[in-house]
Amino acid sequence: MKGTELYGRIFSPTLSLAFFTIDQTFAKDEKTNVLCVYLKYMGSVINVRGVSKTYDTQVNAIRDISFDVNEGEVISILGESGSGKSTLLRLIAGLEDADKGSILIDDQIIKGPADNLVPGYDFVSLVFQNFQLQRFKTVRDNIASEIYFLSAEERTERVDQLLELCRLVDKSENFPHELSGGQQQRVAIAIALAKDPEVVLMDEPFSSLDSRLKAIIRQEMIDILREERVTVIMVSHDHADALSVADRIMVMRKGEMVQVATPEELYHFPKSEYAADFLGPINYLSLNGSSGAIGIRPEKLKIVKSGKYQGIVEKTTFQGMHYHTYIQSDISNNSILIYSEENRKKGSKVEFEVI
Ligand code: ADP
Ligand code: MG
Q1: Which atom of ligand 1 is least distant from the CA of 80?
Q2: Whose CA is nearest to atom 21 of ligand 1?
Q3: What sign has the CA pseudo-torsion 56, 58, 59, 61?
Q4: What is the pTM of this model?
Q5: How many CB atoms lie within 10 A of CB 287?
Q6: What is the atom index within ligand 1 of the atom nearest the CA of 235?
Q7: Å from CA of 58 to ligand 1 middle
Q8: How far is Cα 264 from Cα 269, in angstroms, rounded to an integer?
Q9: Is the dihedral of CA 140, 146, 151, 154 positive or negative?
Q10: Of 14, 229, 301, 336, which has the fewest CB atoms closer than 10 Å, so is most exposed?
């Protein structure tokens, strides 16, 4: 497993470290009394350079996409259905041929099926939406079949490690249908990690889970992947997935990259209405008599006794934590959403301000 493997043996601590921008632990080898360096890989660097892809159907699935992913980074790709997310992921995995541009993983050019006899790369793992577990195999055998090329002893050792990492030890002899959605998801992750990949690509991995489970599993899974220090690209159409786990989010629309930024940056300073809307509810208001509308998130508005703006309550919905109050006002063409502690009656007058 990463982090415990011996990658280099050095006699001077100053030597060779320049080659590894990695967490390192020094230890003395008991048998030889030689100073050893235990290195932890930080995943791989991915460079996508001007990549375009058109399918036979003349669909421009991906248009001139360029971005970099740092080692060990978790990037989330957000975009509506058909925006080219899966195509981009398959291109990075080497399962699709690009028409233009190049993809490099740790400076290695990723070739598509046209130039690669056996498409795909062992150091890149792709997790699909529907997990693709083998129904008639136990959890242990599902994982083991990924690493059939290892000796029986090595295979058992690796499977045991993965069962432990993904907290599946007590489920090892169960069949997929005997597992919960979350457990199946963890098996899929164990399978994805079996070959010790540097990059894990996930295509809408949570879409089959209900929302309560999803938040827990999402965090669990990212914790496992971060522990393994792999570079992760996760595709989603749900902003909550991206906001809570990603280091950076890339927003795609109609095959193009709209913006790539940290979750905070994207949430507070989206560069387009599309990106803004994708990251959660937003109101467009004409403040201070200006003709242009400014995007303001609901939590930046507050209903007060006496405020700068007035409106009429159009609808209130109970959300558990608070009420969603929709207000009609002359500062917006659409109803304005404000979070409120009180259940305000339809038709009542309210005043509000920007906080
Ligand atoms: P997303 O994952 O964001 O929903 P996709 O990458 O699957 O988007 O699809 C992008 C576009 O390419 C869509 O218009 C889709 O219909 C088209 N497309 C995807 N796969 C194929 C294919 N194998 N053959 C033809 N067109 C495809
Ligand atoms: Mg898709």
Answers
A1: 3
A2: 55
A3: positive
A4: 0.80
A5: 14
A6: 2
A7: 11
A8: 8
A9: negative
A10: 14
Mutate to test the pocket of ligand 1, among 52, 55, 126, 202 (most ligand atoms within 8 A of CB): 55
- CA of 81 from ligand 2 middle (Å) equals 7
d(CA 94, CA 12) in angstroms, rounded, equals 39
Instruction: Give nearest CA residue, ligand 1 atom 13.
Output: 82
Q: Give all domains of the chain, ordered by start, each with its CATH number.
A: 6-40 (no CATH), 46-275 (3.40.50.300), 283-354 (2.40.50.140)
How many angstroms separate the most distant Cα atoms in the chain?
82
Ligand 1 atom index nearest CA of 79:
3
Residue 259 identity:
Q
CB of 87 shorter than 6 A to ligand 1: yes
236 close to ligand 1 (CB < 6 Angstrom) = no
What is the chain's pLDDT, residue by residue, as a tens digit (355 residues)? 333 333 433 333 333 333 333 344 444 455 555 554 444 456 789 999 999 999 987 778 999 999 999 999 999 999 999 999 999 999 999 999 999 999 999 999 999 999 999 999 989 998 876 667 899 999 999 999 999 999 999 999 999 999 998 889 999 999 999 998 888 888 998 998 898 899 999 998 877 677 777 788 788 888 888 888 899 999 988 888 888 889 999 999 999 999 999 999 999 889 998 999 888 899 999 987 777 788 899 999 999 999 999 999 999 999 888 999 999 999 998 999 999 999 999 999 999 999 9
Helix (H, G, I), strand (E, B) or coil at 190: helix
Q: Is 283 in the pocket of ligand 1 (CB under 6 A)?
A: no
